[in-house]
């Protein structure tokens, strides 16, 4: 990787880190929120879902704007929106009222709007920064690692903040977002192709037609990657919600709970980092790395569905194996989709991919809450079945020779 751009990539990596903290940090606090706000587990899960649901709608718009103007022009205001909404949720929770849950949900919706212009724009920005494909892959590996590292530390931080009060994580969100804002503002140099004079001035109608042309030519493998990304996030966030609720019923103390939640995510983070290093620029390696990883995740969750889950260590171990498998797949998916699309359309296409991932994030917790009412086995059978679909899509839809 080019030495002079290391500060750029480190600053960019702070964006997915702060956005992940803004969502995942609340997962270990959800049971405490249920008690404080007098809400059901399903209502608590919607606090996570609301953030992702709005992002799904606005991510494509953010991608288009980043292609038309510049990546930084979209990212920086979005980080400020996330900060303001986080502070708003904290203030509402501090004041307290019978309508606190509704106000917090509104703040989370606004926060989701801000997040739409953050992480999804990161992927094309990394692609813009580097000329060599191996540098792009390494950069995307670092970004995905920062994203997963945020997932690792977020339950620990969330649980630690909750020792003071359950709404403390809301106040932490503006701090992390503003740090990311300053890093991007001062250290990320926009590539020349993203300067105002070189920005794509194509009209919206013509631009949509060009995207349609891309999907007609590359729709099979693009749609496949979109679907796999959504399924992966559905499994990860559904499993996290299950583990958080399970540890609460077993009487695990808050900080220990955060540490236990971090174990599966640590596996995801480590394997994601190693995978980003391993795949390089070899698209065939990307396909097979993601395929093996998804197969491993399927096997782990199928075992959880079949074998008794009385022992906490067994549940955590299998979730760690499953998360590690998904961690192997994610950098490969990022690299395939980023390197296979021209820079002029890269922002919009990768944003559509991010929308699919956010659909998984949004669906995971409420689906888990509903399935857990009936049978824990049903939850893991559904997750394992979803991964079977991902494996089949990877096998038949992603052809390395067609990704160019």
UniProtKB/TrEMBL annotation:
<dbReference type="InterPro" id="IPR020846">
    <property type="entry name" value="MFS_dom"/>
</dbReference>
<feature type="domain" description="Major facilitator superfamily (MFS) profile">
    <location>
        <begin position="1"/>
        <end position="402"/>
    </location>
</feature>
<dbReference type="GO" id="GO:0005886">
    <property type="term" value="C:plasma membrane"/>
</dbReference>
<feature type="transmembrane region" description="Helical">
    <location>
        <begin position="42"/>
        <end position="62"/>
    </location>
</feature>
<feature type="transmembrane region" description="Helical">
    <location>
        <begin position="288"/>
        <end position="307"/>
    </location>
</feature>
<feature type="transmembrane region" description="Helical">
    <location>
        <begin position="313"/>
        <end position="337"/>
    </location>
</feature>
<feature type="transmembrane region" description="Helical">
    <location>
        <begin position="101"/>
        <end position="126"/>
    </location>
</feature>
<feature type="transmembrane region" description="Helical">
    <location>
        <begin position="255"/>
        <end position="276"/>
    </location>
</feature>
<keyword id="KW-1133">Transmembrane helix</keyword>
<feature type="transmembrane region" description="Helical">
    <location>
        <begin position="378"/>
        <end position="398"/>
    </location>
</feature>
<feature type="transmembrane region" description="Helical">
    <location>
        <begin position="74"/>
        <end position="95"/>
    </location>
</feature>
<dbReference type="Pfam" id="PF07690">
    <property type="entry name" value="MFS_1"/>
</dbReference>
<dbReference type="InterPro" id="IPR036259">
    <property type="entry name" value="MFS_trans_sf"/>
</dbReference>
<keyword id="KW-1003">Cell membrane</keyword>
<feature type="transmembrane region" description="Helical">
    <location>
        <begin position="7"/>
        <end position="30"/>
    </location>
</feature>
<protein>
    <submittedName>
        <fullName>MFS transporter</fullName>
    </submittedName>
</protein>
<feature type="transmembrane region" description="Helical">
    <location>
        <begin position="349"/>
        <end position="372"/>
    </location>
</feature>
<dbReference type="GO" id="GO:0022857">
    <property type="term" value="F:transmembrane transporter activity"/>
</dbReference>
<dbReference type="InterPro" id="IPR001958">
    <property type="entry name" value="Tet-R_TetA/multi-R_MdtG-like"/>
</dbReference>
<keyword id="KW-0813">Transport</keyword>
<feature type="transmembrane region" description="Helical">
    <location>
        <begin position="170"/>
        <end position="188"/>
    </location>
</feature>
<feature type="transmembrane region" description="Helical">
    <location>
        <begin position="221"/>
        <end position="243"/>
    </location>
</feature>
<dbReference type="InterPro" id="IPR011701">
    <property type="entry name" value="MFS"/>
</dbReference>
<feature type="transmembrane region" description="Helical">
    <location>
        <begin position="138"/>
        <end position="164"/>
    </location>
</feature>
<keyword id="KW-0812">Transmembrane</keyword>
<dbReference type="InterPro" id="IPR050189">
    <property type="entry name" value="MFS_Efflux_Transporters"/>
</dbReference>
<keyword id="KW-0472">Membrane</keyword>
């Amino acid at each position: 990787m080019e030495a002079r751009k290391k500060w750029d990539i480190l600053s960019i990596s702070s964006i997915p880190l702060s956005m992940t903290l803004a969502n995942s940090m609340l997962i270990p606090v959800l049971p405490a929120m249920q008690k404080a706000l007098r809400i059901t587990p399903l209502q608590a899960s919607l606090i996570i879902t609301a953030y992702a649901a709005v992002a799904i709608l606005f991510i494509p718009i953010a991608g288009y704007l980043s292609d038309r103007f510049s990546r930084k022009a979209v990212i920086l205001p979005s980080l400020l929106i996330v900060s303001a909404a986080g502070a708003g949720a904290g203030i509402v929770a501090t004041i307290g009222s019978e309508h606190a849950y509704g106000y917090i949900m509104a703040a989370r919706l606004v926060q989701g709007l801000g997040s739409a212009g953050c992480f999804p724009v990161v992927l094309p920005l990394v692609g813009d920064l580097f000329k060599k494909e191996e540098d792009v892959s390494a950069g995307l590996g670092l970004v995905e690692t920062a994203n997963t590292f945020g997932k690792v530390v977020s339950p620990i931080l969330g649980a630690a903040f909750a020792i003071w009060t359950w709404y403390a994580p809301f106040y932490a969100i503006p701090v992390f977002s503003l740090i990311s804002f300053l890093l991007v503002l001062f250290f990320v140099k926009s590539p020349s192709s993203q300067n105002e004079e070189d920005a794509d001035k194509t009209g919206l109608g013509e631009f949509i037609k060009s995207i349609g042309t891309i999907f007609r030519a590359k729709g099979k493998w693009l749609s496949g990657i979109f679907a796999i990304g959504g399924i992966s996030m559905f499994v990860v966030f559904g499993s996290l919600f299950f583990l958080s609720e399970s540890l609460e019923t077993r009487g695990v103390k808050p900080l220990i709970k955060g540490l236990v939640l971090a174990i599966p995510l640590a596996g995801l983070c480590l394997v994601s980092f190693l995978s980003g290093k391993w795949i390089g620029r070899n698209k065939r390696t990307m396909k097979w790395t993601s395929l093996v990883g998804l197969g491993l995740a399927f096997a782990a969750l199928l075992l959880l569905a079949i074998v008794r889950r009385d022992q906490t260590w067994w549940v955590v171990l299998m979730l760690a194996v499953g998360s590690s498998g998904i961690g192997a797949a994610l950098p490969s998916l990022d690299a395939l989709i980023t390197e296979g699309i021209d820079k002029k359309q890269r922002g919009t296409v990768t944003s559509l991919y991010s929308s699919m991932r956010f659909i998984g994030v949004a669906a995971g917790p409420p689906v888990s809450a509903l399935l857990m009412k009936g049978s824990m086995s049903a939850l893991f059978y559904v997750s394992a079945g979803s991964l079977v679909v991902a494996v089949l899509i990877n096998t038949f839809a992603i052809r390395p020779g067609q990704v160019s």
